[in-house]
Structures are given as C-alpha cells and as structure tokens.
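Dear colleague,

As promised, here are the two records you asked about, laid out in our usual form so they can be pasted straight into your sheet.

NAME FIELD: protein one
SEQUENCE, THEN STRUCTURE:
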Amino acid sequence: MPAKGKILVIRGGAIGDFILTLPVLSALREHFPDAHIELLGYPNVTSLALASGLAHGSLSIESRALARFFAPKGDLDSKLCEYFSQFALIFSYLYDPDKFFESNVKSCFKGQFICGPHRPSDETVHATDLFLSPLRALAIFDADPQPRLHLPAPELSSDIWFAIHPGSGSEKKNWPIEAWLEFALALQARRSGGVLLVGGEAEGDKLEYLSARLEPNRVKVLRSQPLVEVARHLQVCSAYIGHDSGISHLAAALGLKGLILWGETNAQIWRPRSPDIRLLEADCGLSNLKPQVVLDAFIEFITRQS
C-alpha cells in the first residue's frame, strides 16, 4: 500500500474486544506513520483510539445504510461506497461467515481487503496475538502485543484514589456485592485516600449500595460516563481492582497496577497482558473468595509494584 495511503480498520464487539485489538492500530501507526487511519466501529469505544492518537477519524458502525452490505448483492448506499473507495487498505474484524460484507465492500474499492477473526477460536493463543496475525500479509511480524493507551495527561491530584469496578458483562463473573462492601470498608480502614466506584447502567444499584455505606468524603461515583471520561479518571488513580471486564482491560491498557478477580474465562486467551495486572483466581468460584484474602492480595501486589 502507498506509504501515505488511507487505512480503515473495522471493529465491532464489546469494549474488551476493541481494546485487545489496539495492538493492530499501534502496529499500523508504527509501520505506516504517514498513513491516515480511520475506524468503523461503535463511537463510544472508538473514541478511545481517537483520543490517544491511534486513529485520525471514525464512522459509526450503527449506520442503517451499512446493514445493506451484509446482504447478498445488496442495494448499496452510494455514500458508503464512496467512503470505502477512499481507502488503500481495509481490515475487517466483523463476523461475516458468508463473506457478503467482504464481497460488497470489494465492489466499492480497488485496494487490499484483509479479514481478521472477530473472536478467538484457538484456546491456546492469546486474543491479541490472533488479532495481530492478519498483519503478516503486510510483512509485520514483530508487533507489540500489549494494548496501550496514552491519553492527554489530566490535571494530577495529590489525593490517592483506588478504582473499583464491581461489575462486568455477566453476573457469573461477579464477586458478591456484600463481599465488595466488606473489601472496600477494610481498604478504607487500612489505607488513606478514597475509593472511585466505576460502572455503567448495569452496575447502578451496586454503585449506590456501596457509596451509601462508605465514608462519604472518601468515595466518588463515576456512573455511565463516556469511556474517554472513564479513562481520564482512571489515569489519576493509584490502583485498580475489578472483574474480567472491558473496564479492566481499559485499566490495564492505561498502565494501572491492579488486581482482577478472575472467574471461569480462559485466561490464556483473555487475560490483560500488562505486567502491572495480577489475576486472583478461585478454584471453587469467586463467591468463595474471602474479602480479607482479596484485600491482602491487593495491598501486597500494589505495594510490591510501587
């Protein structure tokens, strides 16, 4: 592809899926520094790459007109055809088993179209390595597999804050809320500073339950905020603790040190690759993890990482 061409990366999926694909953007930026990189994805997620300078522009994947590209010989939207025609290279990580999307996009442009896996299928290969594998078609073999985000530095606070994300995409991955409360109260008793509670609509009741029972002048709630705003708040925290979730992957990509309470998900595929993140696994399920055990592991790890 031309050194100064335009590259489009198409990525759907949840927050964690997108963050684990960040090494692809980093590698493209490194190997094609003069290229213009755009994203087709969910705006709340792609905003992270825009804010960190990994991409120059984005288009929402939720466009109704885009749905026609998933039908055989669809009546394609002319503006989207013109949009796709601008690019010299398109990477697609969309689920497209019948290749209808690929065929329709190829009818709009003359560049190189590269398909990537939308989800891992090999239980022995980490997701980031799998998402990077299509770059071999461009002779890129040495890409850094660790997702990294570098957002503009916020105004630093002298206060110490510990970020807690008590939810995830599945209740099966979650530690009981009563255990979180016991942990948070013990943390406030053991360490100075405050607790930043992070979550979306799904965690709203959990955030309210915890914030109402913690010391009011040492707790903040960040609920249902844009991901860039969440990232900026996390950046000023001293450490992080949460579940197997997209927010945990975000914290890891930002370079936070912390602990993740890990359930039954295959860690070989999905664990954050940051050396500053430790997994705490429970053979008998997260519900059997004692708050004191979690607190000791959390404090020991973040102290050792300091």
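NAME FIELD: protein two
SEQUENCE, THEN STRUCTURE:
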Amino acid sequence: MDADGSGLGQLTDSSDTMFYPVWSPDGSRMAVSSARGVYIFDPARPWRDQKPEALPPMEAGRAFVVNSWSADRRWLAGDVGVPSSGIARYSFETRGYERLTDFGEWPVWLGDNRRIMFVSGGKTLHIIDVGTKKVHDVLTVTREVLAPPRVTRDGRTVYFSRRTTEADVWLLELK
C-alpha cells in the first residue's frame, strides 16, 4: 500500500477466514491464523501461485493462534485457543508445540529469543523465560486495560497502550 492509501494489495485468497498475520523477521514469509489452523506463505507471491505450508494441529480441541515470530526465525509464539487458555510456542525444527503457561494472551518474543512478554486478564504484563518457564510480573494495573504488547524491530523497546474508562454520574429529575 502506498503512503496515501492507494495501491492496497490482497495477500490471501482463501475461503477460510484468516486473521492475525505475523511477518517473519526478514520479511520473506508470513504466518496467519485461520479457523482451520496456521499457514505460512510467501507474501511476495500471488496466493494462487503457491501452496501455503499448514502447521500441524496443536492438541485435540485446541487451536494455536499465532501472534509473534522469534528474531532467529526458529519459533512462533501464540495463544492456546480462542479465547486464550494460555501461551504456547511452535518449533519449525521439531514441528511441535510446547505449552508455556495455562493463562495469558498476546505473546510477543523479545529480541533474545529466550523470553516472551504477554498480558493476562488485561491487567498484568508478564515475561516468561521459555527455558525455565519462570514467569516474572512486569506491570500490574487496577483500573486500566492493557493492550497487546509489541516490540520494536531492534528488540530494545516494548510498547503498548493503557485504556482507562472514566465517567461522571448524572442525575435527572423527572417532572
């Protein structure tokens, strides 16, 4: 798409509903979730001219919803199911999944390929070390809702939004 909004290009053309596209770190591939699973494809080639790679199913009755690609391109991180019942990672090497938590959503790899940041309940940002599975709370809010975290390309900065709903109370006297 051009900066003025023109030149919008369609990347997928499937009867399956696709959502949450994630670019690989080098931009050569894209992972996308769908009702049938996760697909990996080349965004530079027309959809009809390729056969997207379908990831294997995760576990009976559970979907893997991709959210982030590790900087070393070896792993994907995602939610377990919709709504999420935890965080998991997928290995391109073993073609298998590893459940990391039984809570949380919106995982994003940090630049070291060892830690993942995620949100739980819209109230707490956590970091998990995927080697030890130790979870560290980074930030907890009470009134706000935390949006999914994102990491800059260099892996040095995390950004997210905090949403606060406030209102005044009004009284209307009926006459």
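A couple of things worth noting about protein two: The domain at 18-159 is CATH 2.120.10.30 (Neuraminidase). The chain has one domain: 18-159.

Best,
R.
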